[in-house]
Amino acid sequence: MMFRPQATRHLKSAVAREHHVRHLGPASALNTSAVFGTTISGKPKDVTEYCIAYSNGAGVLNAPGFVLTDALPTNTTAWTDG
Fold it and tell me: Do the domain assignments include residue 50?
């Protein structure tokens, strides 16, 4: 399994978004000291942590009506209770 998150994007030209990912390994022995990067390799059922960071652009105090969405990478399952 190889995963490459998308590069930084600008939403509504006021909000910047970045993707980061890290491979934590099998659920029975998570490597929580793994470093975030832009690509990972793993095996089926391994755990990966996917981070979406966003911020307002310079001089923008708020972004009314802002909604952050992102597609789940192929062959992955979201674990949202962790």
Answer: yes
Asked if pLDDT for residue 73 goes beyond 70, the answer is: yes
Q: Please spell the DSSP secondary structure of 15-71, one letter per residue.
A: EEEEEEEEEEEEGGG--TTPPPBS-EE--TTEEEEEEEEEEEPTT----TT-----P
Structure tokens at 51: 């981070």
What is the value of pTM for the model shown?
A: 0.61
> What is the tally of structural domains in the chain?
1
How far, CA to CA in Å, does 81 sit from each of 1, 38, 40, 75, 78? 23, 24, 22, 19, 9
- Tell me which residue range forms the domain holding 32: 2-56
In a domain, 11, yes or no: yes
Residue 81 lies in a domain: no
